[in-house]
Amino acid sequence: NAGVTQTPKFQVLKTGQSMTLQCAQDMNHEYMSWYRQDPGMGLRLIHYSVGAGITDQGEVPNGYNVSRSTTEDFPLRLLSAAPSQTSVYFCASSRRDPHLYGYTFGSGTRLTVV
Amino acid sequence: GENVEQHPSTLSVQEGDSAVIKCTYSDSASNYFPWYKQELGKGPQLIIDIRSNVGEKKDQRIAVTLNKTAKHFSLHITETQPEDSAVYFCAASWFSGGYNKLIFGAGTRLAVHP
After folding, report:
1. How close is the nearest chain A Cα to the Cα of B106, in Å?
2. Within an 8 Å CB–CB cutoff, is residue B106 touching chain A?
3. Nearest residue of B to residue A58 by CA position?
4. CB contact B94 to A (< 8 Å)
5. Rg (CA), chain A
6. pLDDT tens digits, residue range A26-71?
7. Does B40 touch chain A (CB under 8 A)?
8. How far apart are CA B103 and CA B66, in angstroms?
9. What is the pLDDT of residues A80-113, one digit of tens each?
């Protein structure tokens, strides 16, 4: 049981490049989310999904796209990277309602945009 | 919108002492308050949570208290050990856009010195 797996762990991008951050969970959790973590700002929600085929925006969605074609996978796409997207990104999953079951977080992807 | 303030931002204690981290929230409708521990290079891990119908909850050396009238909740760690050194995040639930979201505080870096 691997939990929540994120790849890659580290990535450096040039401004304007695109890339996909991968997230997979093997716990059959319905609910998945992407957060970014910046110094002094805690964790901020980018996008979330309450099940396969359903996604919606969080607090800071601009510049990011998501899709949820399967229960297991929830990739985050950066369309045209900007230095402001330099951050640590965490994927999290939960049973239906994270305020009843809490989140399980992945180990994060540290992204630097130069 | 919901806001969660967390204090202090850094906390240094001697091994065996107690540590207290405090959070305040703005939305009186919030009803779920989890605490996460993040060790270096890892994702946040849920360590304890409390719901609005409970004033205090304890799990071995950690406890959380909730004062709904004052809209604040606290994490208490007794008999601290070096392995308690980590960043701790509080969070509060907030119902918006059709689902429960979690709003995180900015984090407290706890250092326990032997």
Report:
1. 4
2. yes
3. B101
4. no
5. 13
6. 999 999 999 999 988 889 999 999 999 999 998 899 999 999 999 9
7. no
8. 16
9. 999 999 999 999 999 877 777 789 999 999 999 9
